[in-house]
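hey all, quick one before standup. I had two proteins in the batch that finished overnight and I want to keep them in one place so we stop losing track of which output belongs to which input. First protein below, input sequence then structure tokens straight from the run.
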Amino acid sequence: MPALPSSLISSLSCTPALTVPETAGGLVAALAELPDPRARRGVRHQLTVVVVAAVCAVIAGCRSYTAIAEWVADVPATTALTLGITPGRRPSEAMIRRLLQALDAQLLTTAITVWLAGRAETPASRQAIAVDGKTLRGSRTGDSTARHVLAACDQNAGIVLASTDVDGKTNEITRFGPLLDQIGDLRDTVITADAMHCQREHVDYLAERGAHWILTVKGNQPHLHKQLSRLPWRQVPQAARQDDRGHGRREIRTLKILTVAAGIDFPHAAQALQIRRRRRRLDQPRRFTTETVYAITDLLLHQAKPAQLADWIRGHWTIENKIHWVRDVTYDEDRSQIRTGTGPHVMAALRDAAISALRAAGTTNIAAANRHHARDSSRPLALLGLI
């Protein structure tokens, strides 16, 4: 991509250095090598300054370029100086928009996920990582389809560990390996994924990386699905059962497990799983709906207890509940009007950064946390370790 011209006349040498303490969370360092798409002549604000300010603004609930620029314009002079912004020379909306829609979205995402991985606590037990995709519906235009991203999320922490774009010339399947390549060590982790990723190439890749897996099986693998459905499940006792009430409904989930080392035509498969979900509304006690889903795993009987398998299967939807749902509902991503250049992917990366940083701090209600950080501009900086 050619360098962007800049209408700003001050040279880069006039830009104050970002005043970051040695104890900072590492975001500034992670962004240090991110290439600037602008021409060097006339650049007033360092790329790192603008991106860190944008992350702070999104933590405070900003959803658009305009909102980010307004947040930057309104912060007190002390906050601006901490960010590295000279008083009286704050980034304009036009400059923020031009820069964010020209950034290399994949390099930005990689830098942010490296930073987020460093903030994630070391899990007490085996780490489980959920892989799932999301369509950025608001990015659709009259002559182009909506953008799509594939992400990997720590099930326990709700932190995005890796993310990659899926362009219109390919699909999630081809991006599975490149996505997980961003995570340095997968040994002894458990990867969970939906039926699209029940692919022989995927399990071969995970075996090479030393990772375990649990994959849902549906109609895209008809032969395998038929094999699983014909197993003698009626003769198998329940290995785990969960009975939950909430949100006006009751859900009963049961898990059955069969060792199938030699009976399933799929590489590395060691156990077959049957998950049955029965749901009913609390005001309709006799009207249950039942859903039966099959899955396979390479985990052996002694490597994971049934209750742990059930938790990982259910925990796969962490990425939907803790990341994608928040982006859709709290940040109204599906109605975003950001469509130009790499803007949709860049904003998705900024939202992931904000949500994951809040999760790492123990936040459960992202909307309330947005309001909390919007009331005091120093709070996002403190969350990022800048003060």
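OK second protein, same deal, sequence then tokens:
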Amino acid sequence: MNRRDVLLTALAAGASLAMTDATAQTSPTRYSALALQTRCDAVNQDSIKEAARARMNATMARVSSQIGAAKGFLKGFNGYDLKLVVLPEYWLTSFPLGETREQWQAKAAIDMQGAEADAIAAIAQKHGLYLCSNHYENDPHFPDLYFQANVVYGPTGQVVLRYRRMISLYTPSPYDVWDKYLDAYGLDAVFPVAATEIGTLGTIASEEILYPEIARMAVFKGAEILLHPTSEVGSPNLTPKHISKMARAVENIAYVVSANSAGIYGTPVAANSTDGMSIVLDWYGRTLAEAGTGETFNANAVLDIAALRETRKKTGMTNTLSRLPMDAFEKTYADTRLAPANKTPDGKMIERAEVLARQRAVIEDMAARGILR
């Protein structure tokens, strides 16, 4: 399956979804959305699975209380119900730091259908909202791998969207087992969206905000709100990710709700190396709300889906989506080969050194073909 096929399939699916969504949701929709900036209590400090699971459970209880407090406060503050919460990247565990891939899978990856997944779903159900969680998860189709997933749970606790991070240097991705992944789930599951009563949701994981194609895949399927769990360096200056968040909002005429960690505790890395900059952006790239540092629900804003839809249907130069000359891009995308698919066709873990060696080979090939000088 090449990029041309992915793009064309996404466009066709998006047209059908957009028509269905437009007829199903006709009333104005206004509600509070929150990028919850919460600290991460790292399981790196746990030597056994049971200790890591106990730490996860404590984190879930704390975050559930924070969501409940935010819901009550915001209703009293602005009069709108809190209907959407985005959590930071790997909020349950932190990231592997010295562990082997096998050790991290055993300690930090949760089962798609297991106690931890049920507990996250219960948070969404308890508070009656849509909850976007980024976590590491196991998949029975690929028992020797784990994926980093954005999973959106609905108000009744149901999974409405499961996206596996596509671009990751060190964590296994669907692209690494591309053929088998498509056999197991089909192309529609690779870049899923969820048409809900609060709008059509799409997701982007962490540094994927730097890649316009990831957001486009969701938007071409009708996404109106891009949910972005991240764990990134906070800075008083503009960072590449922060700039990219604004760009993704503008070029896609979409809301962006991006939640960053309020520090990662329990590793040798200075805890507040990732902190601040959780943000809610409108489709002009304007900041509706942004958090400072520390644990906070200050990155909250009222989303107006009816206004977004009206904007997307207007004529004029600012309607960037309607003016995309897709046919002009098709051949170059189809003819360009960069990172190859099926990096691990047998579904086995590969070592960090091999990952970097393969990346070096791609860079050298780009130079040989004149893409790089």
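Flagging for whoever picks this up: The longest helix spans residues 49-78. The longest strand covers residues 130-138.
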